């Protein structure tokens, strides 16, 4: 169960609307532009939605309205990308349902823009063993994490 003070502070932050935009598609487009620009060097995203998919997305009116969200590659979504868990064994697995947390985020108005890279099946701590390749820390891109 979540710590009630943490939950209260998250609700207060979301209610303050410190992160704003004019519409969800504009925010998601901005997020996708950043992903397109930085992901080739960082390899942080395993997959993401396209501009065409943004245009057809509808967001709920809630405390997270218009916020772009990314989930790990092992979280099931109904995005057209596979729920691969960063493994070749599941690289074609398209989930017929979404994880409860994804439903909750979307119900609060968030827009899931993609799935992030991870160690295969989440079995690691350095994000180096993935079918997508190692992810690079943007704060220390030249350091060797091995």
UniProtKB/TrEMBL annotation:
<dbReference type="Pfam" id="PF01425">
    <property type="entry name" value="Amidase"/>
</dbReference>
<dbReference type="InterPro" id="IPR036928">
    <property type="entry name" value="AS_sf"/>
</dbReference>
<dbReference type="InterPro" id="IPR000120">
    <property type="entry name" value="Amidase"/>
</dbReference>
<dbReference type="GO" id="GO:0032543">
    <property type="term" value="P:mitochondrial translation"/>
</dbReference>
<feature type="domain" description="Amidase">
    <location>
        <begin position="53"/>
        <end position="142"/>
    </location>
</feature>
<protein>
    <recommendedName>
        <fullName>Amidase domain-containing protein</fullName>
    </recommendedName>
</protein>
<dbReference type="GO" id="GO:0050567">
    <property type="term" value="F:glutaminyl-tRNA synthase (glutamine-hydrolyzing) activity"/>
</dbReference>
<dbReference type="GO" id="GO:0005739">
    <property type="term" value="C:mitochondrion"/>
</dbReference>
<dbReference type="GO" id="GO:0030956">
    <property type="term" value="C:glutamyl-tRNA(Gln) amidotransferase complex"/>
</dbReference>
<dbReference type="InterPro" id="IPR023631">
    <property type="entry name" value="Amidase_dom"/>
</dbReference>
<dbReference type="GO" id="GO:0070681">
    <property type="term" value="P:glutaminyl-tRNAGln biosynthesis via transamidation"/>
</dbReference>
